[in-house]
Amino acid sequence: MSAISRYETLAMLPRMAKLLLLSCVVALLAGTASAFFLHSLVWATAMRDSHRYLLCLLPLAGFVVGWVYLRYGSRVEAGNNLLIDEIHDPTRIIPLRMVPLVLWGTVMSHLFGASVGREGTAVQMGGALADQLTHLLKLSNADRRILLMCGIAAGFASVFGTPLAGAVFALEVLAIGRMRYDALFPCLLAAIVADQVGLAWGVLHTHYAIQFIPAISGWTLLATLVAGALFGLAGKLFADSTHALAARIKRLVKYPPLRPLLGGLLLLAIVWPTGADRYIGLGIPVIVDAFQQPLAPYDFAAKLGLTVLSLASGFKGGEVTPLFYIGATLGNALSPLLHMPFSLLAGLGFVAVFAGAANTPLASTIMAMELFGSEVGIYAALACVASYYFSGHSGIYRSQRIAHGKHRPFPRGLKLSELAAWRQRQSD
């Protein structure tokens, strides 16, 4: 080994030690916060299931959450998009109040019956808690970026029990077509430790099992590609519908707390008389059923519609678990059409709709192998990549940058939220 190589190796050690310590601290904070959050969701779901009349309070709960965010949370209302923006263009430390606000707001959404998820909450808590170390330790912008990514990785990993997917998600979600490998070590460590911290606090993750994985053949590969394309279109429909409806509601209803109030009234009018309780909350039992038995072919559409309405009207929570639900039930419905095992297509849909909607095919493929076993890897990779391409340049995170276009070149660094205006300028 040359003298230069030895010097580079030795010079790297202090930074590695620093990143190791910081990532472990972030993991401890994020894993603990996620554990408290998940236990709170279990309580909220059990309360709602045993006291159905709580649905009647959904509009009021929406108004209260909306008012609290208007009064105290305007700086953090952007949620995951705020984290992505701060990683790309650091400006101000994320306020610590993001943690209690998003936790309380999401628990209220689940307690009273909105159709939302949980990933967004865990990621926001992880990122906000991590960013407090920036101020405390006076970190540089470069270290702050890595710290925020560690918070995202830790939050994602601890809420789903998928540390490898959590680490890759934090690297992949920032920009379409580019990953930040300089943060690989701390994100991986933060994700692994946060997952273990959650388990130590008694978190129990749902087990999903693909009952049969067929041998690879021409037909199974073709069917997987077709299903992946449909999963990508479903992810695109979800993302585009949520953004379009949210923009329309904001134009029509100027006072923010009224938006979830009106959305809650509409949700109540749909769910209460029809008994459509299976489409609200996380919907974990329905996801499990999608792996075990044939379900109604319209389940995915009903969940998609109620989730779009819930998120667009301002209820707090994530998008990912509803995307799991939509994907698993859509895969279940496609099974007889593609002559593939319904549990396999449910598993592929589970990860592939998310891959298309979040533009994270690698993280989604790794998640499939963590949840269902390595044997599903080839099918999952095909489905997730096909979904990624067929979802186009849309996504649930509007602050994602385009580093490399999927089908055509775009200006480097263009946000998804800026894409429509750019296309309009090009056509003029």
UniProtKB/TrEMBL annotation:
The residues that cross the membrane are: 51-72, 146-171, 183-204, 216-239, 300-325, 337-358, 378-397
**Any Pfam family hit:** Voltage_CLC
**Any coiled-coil ranges, and where?**
none
How does the entry describe its membrane topology?
Multi-pass membrane protein
Q: Where in the cell is it found?
A: Membrane
Which InterPro entries does this one have? Cl-channel_core, ClC, ClC-type_chloride_channel
Q: Which Gene Ontology cellular component terms are annotated?
A: membrane
Q: Which CDD domains match?
A: ClC_sycA_like
One annotated GO molecular function is: chloride transmembrane transporter activity
Coarsely, its chief localization is membrane
Q: Which UniProt keywords apply?
A: Membrane, Transmembrane, Transmembrane helix
Q: What name does UniProt use for this protein?
A: Voltage-gated chloride channel protein
Query: What species does this protein belong to?
Result: Aquitalea palustris
